[in-house]
Amino acid sequence: MNPDRSAEAAKRLARAVGFDLAGVAAARASDETRFVRSWAADGYGGPEGGPLDYVLRRLDEREDPRRVLPGARSVVAVGFVFDDGSPPATGPRIARYARGDDYHDVLLDRLRALAAGLEAFHGRALDTRCYVDTGPVQERAFAADAGLGWIGKNTMLIHPAHGSHVFLGVLLTDLDMTPDAREPDHCGTCRACLDACPTDAFVAPHVLDATRCISYTTIESPAPIPESLRDGQGDWLFGCDVCQDVCPFNERNARNARDGRAALPDPLGLRVRLSARSEWQTPSLDWVLGLDEGAWQAATRRSALRRAKRRGLLRNALVVAGNRADASVRPRVAQLAADEDADLAAHARWALERIDAR
């Protein structure tokens, strides 16, 4: 089939199965995909065998999608906007993306529907692979190549109208499709994201030292949170949105959403599934610190919060307790100071010192 027709059909089908954005890129290596190798060599992904070892072990595939799917010719990049325009939380905070159902499950199902639709349209079986942050493919690089936005100085993909609160996915295929034009970089001289990072995780524009990022220390890493980074964590329980919250494109999108001027359709109910659950919108710190295994399992059912495990969430909550120095949670913290887990107990003793000093 004509590459133009195939590309147009893929984008129409992507929107039909629920995605807000869709574009096509060539399945090839690029300067952006090759950057992962020098980034890893500089140690910004942590040590081999560390929390990001799943990235470091498959650099060849992350450079070139044809090593993931031999014969791949095109990448269909899709985006789903999940920001509802609500202001940043003021209490113990959960990153916006993790407050509802796990986006991996919700959107991977939609990508598979897209793959099935493409097969039906072309009337034959296709060789495809679908990824929503679940494999050795750099979704942001291909989304930028497909014109869904540009990669900002905070390393996030930014759409000119919707900002960076956009879930990304890719479908690799052996179909020959006409690629879309790239979106130019609109960051200009702005460095709001770089200056706002509470742990100074940005080495330079477009370069993140993941080991200093709050999302790494509160989600990826099971190790004790370094004391030098605890103040910067502030009241983040899981992940961090600071570099996105200060972005002018996100601020504009949030204002439009609150005014009702940027409301996006949701015929399949995907936005409802991904919207914040009440218990994670502004969670009580005392409640989090008191979660036993059963309560944690129930509260995190179908949630990305499970990635940190109960122990990790308690560890994070103890750092928040120390930073807030709130005497009302002291009984919970004192109880955890006697926990059989030595790392949790050490975090609790640190928090107690801060509470008592205050």
Commentary on this structure:
- The chain has 358 residues and is an alpha+beta fold.
- The protein folds into 2 domains: 1-217 and 232-276, no CATH class; 284-358, Leucine-rich Repeat Variant, CATH 1.25.10.
- The protein has 18 helices and 10 strands.
- It has helices spanning 3-16, 31-41, 53-56, 59-63, 103-122, 139-145, 192-196, 214-220, 227-233, 242-245, 248-259, 270-274, 278-281, 285-289, 293-299, 309-324, 330-336, 342-357; strands spanning 21-26, 74-81, 93-94, 128-131, 150-151, 157-158, 166-173, 202-204, 207-208, 236-238.
- The chain has a 4-stranded antiparallel sheet with strand order 1-2-7-4, sandwiched between helices. The protein has a two-stranded parallel sheet with strand order 3-10. The chain has a two-stranded antiparallel ribbon with strand order 5-6.
- The radius of gyration is 21 Å and the shape is globular.
- The protein starts with a helix and ends with a helix.
Write the layout of secondary structure elements.
Blueprint: H1 3-16, E1 21-26, H2 31-41, H3 53-56, H4 59-63, E2 74-81, E3 93-94, H5 103-122, E4 128-131, H6 139-145, E5 150-151, E6 157-158, E7 166-173, H7 192-196, E8 202-204, E9 207-208, H8 214-220, H9 227-233, E10 236-238, H10 242-245, H11 248-259, H12 270-274, H13 278-281, H14 285-289, H15 293-299, H16 309-324, H17 330-336, H18 342-357
Parallel strand pairs: 3-10
Antiparallel strand pairs: 1-2, 2-7, 4-7, 5-6, 8-9
Helix pairs in contact: 1-5, 16-18, 17-18
Radius of gyration: 21 Å
> Poorly predicted ranges (pLDDT <50, ≥5 residues)?
none
Order of helices and strands: HEHHHEEHEHEEEHEEHHEHHHHHHHHH
Q: What spatial order of strands do you see in the largest sheet?
A: 1-2-7-4
Main sheet record: 4 strands, antiparallel
Number of helices: 18
Quickly give the structural class. Answer: alpha+beta
Helix fraction, binned, reads 40-55%
- The strand count comes to 10
Shape: globular
Termini, distance in Å?
70 Å
Percentage beta strand: 5-15%
Overall pLDDT, averaged? 95
Number of domains: 2
